[in-house]
């Protein structure tokens, strides 16, 4: 019996696509990030008590809190490790441009060796079209796009793709940044 050998070594990094929607089975209206097989990788709990809540919690597939994001002022957010506690700050996000068709955010990681004035990531896009690109320096780290189908003129905004490109960026960090960009109003 012949053995199969992959053409590329398994360690070759490839982009990861996650499909983002509130319509994944079993989510009860919460936002979900699913892999290509439909398995939920991340879930986002929005504070159901008020639509203008300033809290978003990114959960893993088992429901364990990974990152909690709090809005701390007009156009700025803070991300903390874990659940409700505001003890272990991971990142700060500041909005730099907010126009009708364009939004830009700067992301500062806490504990990274960098100058305070230089952001670790920049996010640019148009939230209404579910379009966001995350940059680290001049490299694209991740981007979102609507789900177009062949012969489709209009793409619905309820489901979109998040592509995370290879690198050393934590996928839960990227997912929480996408939630801020698209749902952080």
Automatic annotation (TrEMBL):
InterPro entries: LOR, LOR_sf, Tubby-like_C. Keywords: Membrane, Transmembrane, Transmembrane helix. The chain crosses the membrane at residues 162-183. Belongs to the LOR family. This is Protein LURP-one-related 7. It comes from Salix suchowensis.
């Amino acid at each position: 019996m012949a053995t199969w050998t992959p053409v590329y070594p398994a360690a070759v990094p490839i982009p990861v696509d996650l499909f983002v929607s509130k319509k994944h089975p079993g989510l009860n209206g919460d936002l979900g990030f699913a892999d290509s097989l439909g398995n939920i990788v991340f879930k986002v709990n929005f504070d159901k008590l008020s639509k203008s809540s300033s809290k978003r919690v990114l959960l893993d597939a088992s429901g364990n809190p990974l990152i909690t994001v709090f809005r701390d002022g007009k156009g700025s957010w803070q991300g903390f490790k874990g659940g409700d506690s505001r003890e272990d700050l991971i990142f700060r996000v500041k909005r730099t441009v907010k126009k009708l068709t364009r939004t830009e955010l700067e992301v500062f990681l806490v504990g990274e060796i960098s100058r305070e004035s230089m952001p670790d990531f920049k996010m640019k896009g148009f939230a209404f079209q579910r379009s966001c690109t995350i940059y680290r320096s001049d490299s694209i780290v991740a981007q979102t796009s609507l789900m177009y189908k062949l012969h489709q003129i209009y793409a619905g905004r309820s489901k979109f793709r998040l592509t995370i490109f290879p690198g050393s960026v934590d996928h839960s960090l990227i997912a929480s940044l996408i939630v801020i960009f698209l749902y952080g109003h």
